[in-house]
Amino acid sequence: MTQPLFDLAGARVFVAGDRGMVGSAIVRRLASEKCRILTAERDLVDLRRQAAVDDWFSKNDPDVLVIAAAKVGGIHANNTMPIEFLYDNLMIEANLIHAAAAAGVRKLLFLGSSCIYPREAPQPMREDALLTGPLEPTNEWYAVAKIAGIKLVEAYRRQNGADFVSVMPTNLFGPRDNYHSKHSHVPAALIRRFHEAMAARAPHVVVWGSGAPRREFLYVDDLADACIFVLKNYSGDGFLNIGTGTDVTIAEFARLVATATGFKGEIVFDTSRPDGAPRKLLDVSKLHALGWRHKTELHEALALTYRDFLAGGGRNQAE
Ligand code: GDP
Fold first, then answer.
1. What pTM was estimated for this model as a whole?
2. 92 Cα: distance to centroid of ligand 1 (angstroms)
3. How confident is the model at residue 2 (pLDDT cuts 50, 70, 90)?
């Protein structure tokens, strides 16, 4: 392997959002790098307040910042809590990026989301599809905040020459996912629902929407590996998509979850629930060309995630 562009050895790496699914996976992955991992206690540092963030930076002096902190949630939460999805996310990212620049952070990685792309973007979605059309209305609050974050990263890069980069992960799942009955994304929602149906010996499981939307899913430990790869090996102007390059229908995905959990009953679709975007598949050719590919296939990732769920590793498993 050639020498990385950026050496993590000896660096003080601040992972903002370390208690979430993504941040905790990045912390797990960083354990095999020779760096020092820094985190901010959630109850002590409110990332929505610039003064609290500035204070944390002046006390801890990080070299690298990974922004995995965000207000996140599935289609229902996004639709019903527009203030949190817009305000909290704008403040968290603006405060962290601004503080990092002021503190002379040498490398910054901002995590966006595939929902930044227009609802009708050509599939698979290339990075240059950003801002070419209207957003999917069910998650536009989150998307607008994340687009602002990408632009802020670009602005610091352009105006100050900062080595700040952004990545756009596809739909994620894995250990420490949020299993909240109303706020979860489809992988956690279905793992929990199929598991509970098994326990109750229910004859069928209800899946929201028509089953026709297509989604690309990536195991969060693979995402974490991609983030470390990007930190070390990428320093370009444009952001990078992170995904597997393949998608499945929600109906196919539900069947995979049924297999992972052992559920053998019927799957029923509730078409009174929203479908959201018809398809979300990322074009990952830029990342593949750099030399990174995912390792964990979907069925294997679902089995690992279900094991974590059974061990009580998920958040809000009872809410
Ligand atoms: P999205 O990718 O931003 O739309 O986020 P979600 O993960 O919340 O939803 C993905 C797709 O899965 C949508 O078409 C949902 O309607 C569908 N879906 C099916 N059952 C569920 C469920 O129980 N919870 C959620 N959140 N989505 C579901």
1. 0.96
2. 25
3. low
